[in-house]
Amino acid sequence: MSSEALAELLAAPALAAPEGVTPDFENPPNSNGLAWFVTTIFMIFATACVCLRLFARVWIDKKIRVEEVMMICAYGAYWGTAYAGYSLIFTPGYYVHTWNLQNKDLIRPLYVSFEFDDA
Fold first, then answer.
1. What pTM did the predictor assign?
2. CA–CA separation, 26 vs 6, rounded Å?
3. If DSSP codes are grouped into helix, strand and coil, which group holds residue 34?
4. Most CB atoms within 10 A, among 31, 68, 109, 110?
C-alpha cells in the first residue's frame, strides 16, 4: 500500500455519521470526567480492601500465607487493568461515538485493548 493510500485510509471516518449529524473530529464529545471518577473511586476502594486485609493478616495474626501472596499478585494485575482504563481516557475518550473518530484515532485504543491478548 502506498503512503498516500495509507494516509487516506487513516484520515477516513471510522463510521459513517447518521443522517443530520455532523462529525466532530477535532473535539468529540465524551464522558471522560465520569471515567476518571469511577476508575479512581474503585481503585481507592480496592486499595483500602487490600491494605485492610494485609493489616489484619500480617500485623495482627503475624502470618503470611499463600493467599496473601496471590492477593498481591492479583492486585498488581488489577493495576495493569486500571492503567489500560486510564490510558483510554486520553485517546480517544469514553463514550465517544465512532462517527466522531477517524481511523487513525483507533490505533492506540485497539492496541491497549489487545495488549495482553498474547499471554
1. 0.74
2. 20
3. helix
4. 109
